[in-house]
Design a protein that fits this description.
Blueprint (H helix, E strand, L loop, with lengths): L14 H20 L19 H31 L4 H35 L1
Keywords: Membrane, Transmembrane, Transmembrane helix
Pfam families: T4SS_pilin (PF18895)
InterPro entries: T4SS_pilin
Amino acid sequence: MNRQPLKWPTPQPHYAIRIARFAATIAVVVLLVAAPEAAFAAAPAGTVLAAESIGAVLGNIRAWVMGFLAAWATLCATVGFLRYTSGEPGEVERGKTALRSAAIGYAGALLIPLLLTIVTAWTK
């Protein structure tokens, strides 16, 4: 009869290693708590949050929306390729749907400048 356990127990770290980890943790905490003025070393500068014009705001919105749409379309394309290559009939159809969604997302990202040009024309 085999009397060995099915899984060997995980060995505990040596006592010295545990003490070193504890000492390092305490040292980091002491450094962070003892010197709170380090976070405020520079004098605060005046922050200007106002945009120069509506066109600048719309340009920023265009850049952010295009970035988000392109990132989302890339994620859809990646998932679509993974599903399409799985080989199962149901997953292949879902992969095709995801690839179509990615194409629509890329088209939307390309149309954002046109839409914002129209909105900018309305604001002038």
